[in-house]
Amino acid sequence: MLQTVAIVGAGVMGRLLALKLLQQGFKVSVYDREARHSSHTCSFVGAGMLTPYTEAESAEPLVHELGLEAFDCWQNLCQQFSPTSFRIGGSLIVAHPNDQADLQRFEQNLRFNLQPEHQLALQQVDQVAIDQLEPDLGGRFQQGVYLAAESWLVSETILKAMADELDQNARFSWYDNVEISDIMPGQISVSGKIEKFDWVLDCRGLGAKQDIPGLRGVRGELLWLHAPEVKLNRLIRLMHPRYQIYVIPRPNDVYIIGATQIESEDYSDITVRSALELLSAAYTVHRGFGEASVVKTATHCRPAMPDNLPVVICQAGLIRVNGLFRHGYLLSPAISSRVVEFMQAGNLDSRFMQRLDDQVAPAPAASSRR
Amino acid sequence: MTQNTQFEVGGEELSSRMIIGTALYPSPDVMKQSIVASAADVITVSLRRQNPADDGGMDFWQYTKQLGKKFLPNTAGCHSVKEAITTAQMAREIFDTNWIKLEVIGDDYNLQPDPFALLEAATELIRQDFVVFPYCTDDLVLCQKLHAAGCDILMPWGAPIGTGKGLINPYALKTLRSRLPEVFLVIDAGIGLPSHAAAAMELGFDAVMLNTAIAQASDPVLMAGAFGKAIEAGREAYLAGNIQPREAAQPSSPVVGMPFWHQEENF
Question: Could you list the residue range(s) of the whole structural domain that residue A276 is in?
């Protein structure tokens, strides 16, 4: 008999889970309050960075460990149905001469948080090496760090490709523009009507705020620039005491400049101050951004727990996945694998998964830093 | 006399001489653990960029409220008198305190305070019954005027915010201490190492305010504890009264095997 699954929330986590569960023979229904190609979701706004090393600067080591699984997973998926969505080129981290201390701090924290074998991925680069990697930076930076193993996704196209791929499966149904309430073990309420399933997976992000104590929104703002004069092929991160940015190449001379990180659940449009900071910083990376046009701005709030780490709360018939913070694309491959393992074999990765229905609920791993 | 003596500032009884910031940590949990490790009684919070009019930062503020510390809201990010006053008024409502750490930035690159706007804003906020903690430079005349305007607490910088350079002008800081003996003086900004904080306390400053040096350390929790110890050590050293440095070595006990008149000849 086919096991049935309802996935509530069609962000990157929900879509990836749907694909994996279909592969395992489940019958999957996805519910979302947005339209399937809506641009008003956290996943759509997210830039799609797969940077397990650079994230180790400020994230707990767990983010790095889980993030290492992202490269293979996304490369395989993209090869199957969206080859142009996967981008390889590595991350180049640079700072202006006055801000060398910030580059040093970045490298110091990376070395502090990474195991020795992973520190080999860090490559210090001088002006000559930087100019070889990105000739368009034109001698602007004397020092940097290069992480060749990092990659990124064209998130808006992979999300669409995943939806199209799901739609082709006869065991799949998509219900968009629906309000889901009363998410419980084995059942949900769809526009007031109870529907029953073997499993319910709650992937709503901040939509699950009432059900996950401690969940909060962290505002992020991004700008999309069309900059034909700029030719960059890698992720560029600019270290600065206040205005840290990343520059992510998109097809057709578009670059995403991001992102602010503000402790506020505020969905309003980008502020002038944030735009000024992001654009000023981008202009110092490449003068060609001065002539770019601002194609669009984007704002969303990332769902985060107090330790900024993911959380998976499991019980029979209901699994809640949340707190992917700014690491949705980076962490969803590892988390979706563990969720499927739990559903099939009852295995629990105690670093971020907890059981609710046992008498003894194991506490989540302590979040002390090394 | 010991460091643990309670003291009164701005109408509150405190025992720790560290004020700790809540920005730039890797996560709220690491922030919380760092604050606990620091043993600070007072924490600063910002609200300017968090859309306070719509309670945008409420989750984060609620989380920090659980710590049970005294809040010192700040006007970080304000560039004019009007902005600073509006932010202070919102802070009073949100955090239910009349304390305000007043920052009015004059130079965007190094976040240097605008002394003229600062004095104007401080004067107005005191008129509105705020207890004003102005973030100022180490200029004596500015500090005197802020004091004359009603500030009994002053927060001169050690160095520009986030530089971690320590006390770049000890002469000016010593001058402030000796000329404003009745003012509660807090070194704010520029501290990078526990030894910088200890040095400030040894000069007789009443407290030290920190954020970046802890939040952006590789291990913020460990660094918070280190600063707590350094500030205590510096305070106790100040109270204990240091010996005066001198040009030549002076053995604390006679050198065994050498007649005392030969020891004298060495000088």
Answer: 91-148+216-304
